[in-house]
Amino acid sequence: MNESNFVLVTGASEGIGKAIALSCLHHGFEVGLVSRNQEKLDLALAEAGEKKRNALAFTADLTDSTQVDRLINQVIHRKGKIDILVNNLGRGLQREIIETTNDDWEYLFKVNLSSAFYMCRATLPHMRKRKTGNIINITSRAGRKGEGDFAAYCAFKHALVGLTRALADSESRHGIRVNAICPGLVSTERLKKTKPNLDFSKASQPVDVANAVLFLLSPAAQTMNGQ
Asked: Is 107 tagged catalytic?
């Protein structure tokens, strides 16, 4: 591999994460794809065609801080750096608060917030050492407005926006930028299967979110931080 910027994308085996990873590959980045599912990672890499040579696949459960620390050590061992981290892993749950169980709450907390927290905590020392870095958190429209039918999900996506702003403040002195993307309804294969009655006619496509990531990686966004 050459010495181009290396992007690490979580939840990269399907949906928005896969679109981000493939778009970055096609725009000349080297990419690390992270997922728990090796089979889905292999299928995603197959879609990259010849660009697959610039990709690496890593399996880890990002809700486990020990596995996250091991993952980042593996990435640094293989690549020596992480220029860009895209925290994309997340899951939604349409459920009002009185219907939300303790298990629901714990699951959504781990997937939507803990995973990004663990990834940032493990990655930032390496970025600080190089005095450069770019972190992009994929949150949601639910992280900017109240959505009562998604109470727990909404709470954790708001928290991820708060984490984004806090890190933008603390890490700018180390040459590191941190921003968030808050898409609304996105027409992913998973969502179309689980919510077949939704109207997707005005929904964004995964590639639309990927294009927003590419913008944040472009020279046009080099002064954006905490947005």
From this structure: no
CA–CA separation, 59 and 147 (whole Å): 32
- Cβ atoms of residues 14 and 190 within 8 Å: yes
Contact 83, 115 (CB under 8 A): no
Residue 190's pLDDT is 84
> Is 224 in contact with 147 (CB distance < 8 Å)?
no
- Structure token pair of residue 222: 């080099």
Instruction: Report the 10 Å Cβ neighbour count for 158.
Output: 18
Half-sphere exposure of 88 (CA within 13 A, CB side): 28
C-alpha to C-alpha distance for 132 and 174, rounded to whole angstroms:
7
Query: Tens digits of per-residue pLDDT, 76-92?
Result: 999 999 999 999 999 99
CA separation for the pair 86, 203 (Å, rounded): 22
Angle subtended at Cα 100 by Cα 103 and Cα 155, rounded to the nearest 5 degrees = 95
Q: What CA–CA distance (Å, rounded) separates 134 from 69?
A: 19
Beta bridge partners of 186: 204
Out of 153, 157, 158, 210, which one is annotated catalytic?
Answer: 153
pTM to 2 decimal places: 0.94
